[in-house]
Design a protein that fits this description.
alpha/beta, DNA polymerase, domain 1, Outer membrane lipoprotein wza fold like
């Protein structure tokens, strides 16, 4: 076909167009997908963040700290890290009632008592676990431990005393080191507790 477009020319032309589009997209300065950026700290004034990671632990701290509120933390951080993230303790904070080495868990509510509050209550840490989640045996106070089936006031106190003396439990099975908790009692609460 003199003067007409040959089928080979159409294929060659299409290949040139595809190549040009690929060069534009892959060449530095081309129209690539926009870079994803994290929001600035000032954009998150409602929920201060210590670290923006996934997964994260969301905890509520109240009481005698500079900036009480809800904080997003990296998993595995300790209560001392949360207190520091909240601006540190106030001058009237009673830190002796807290286990600052305790690991914080998602959904925990931690209250830092002040000297003006009633300090006659016992317990190393005031933590309110989520209603649907397990009781944190490394953070719960005696009254929270008493909500577990078969755990009365004396056994709850023994768990807190053991934890304070020997350090946090590494696993739920470590509860057997507490006098009065055997395999049967542990099996009765295993699904209701965590570390």
């Amino acid at each position: 076909m003199p003067g007409g477009i040959q089928p080979g020319q159409i294929i060659a032309g299409a290949a040139v167009v595809v190549a040009a589009v690929l060069i534009l997209l892959l060449w530095p300065g081309g129209t690539a997908a926009p870079e994803q950026t994290l929001p600035r700290a000032s954009d998150q004034s409602q929920v201060p963040a210590v670290a923006l990671t996934d997964p994260e632990v969301v905890v509520h701290i109240s009481g005698a700290v500079a900036s009480p509120g809800v904080y997003r933390l990296e998993p595995g951080l300790r209560l001392i890290d949360l207190v520091e993230a909240a601006g540190g303790p106030n001058v009237d904070a009673v830190l002796d009632r807290l286990n600052l080495a305790a690991v914080v868990h998602d959904g925990d509510r931690i209250h830092v008592p002040s000297s003006a509050e009633d300090t006659s209550q016992s317990g190393a840490l005031t933590v309110t676990p989520t209603s649907s989640g397990p009781v944190n045996i490394n953070g719960a106070d005696a009254s929270q431990l008493e909500t577990l089936p078969g755990i009365g006031p004396s056994l709850a106190a023994a768990i807190v005393e053991d934890r304070d003396r020997l350090g946090p439990f590494g696993s739920v099975d470590d509860l057997e080191r507490v006098s009065g908790i055997g395999p049967a009692k542990l099996d009765g609460i295993r699904d209701l507790v965590g570390v």
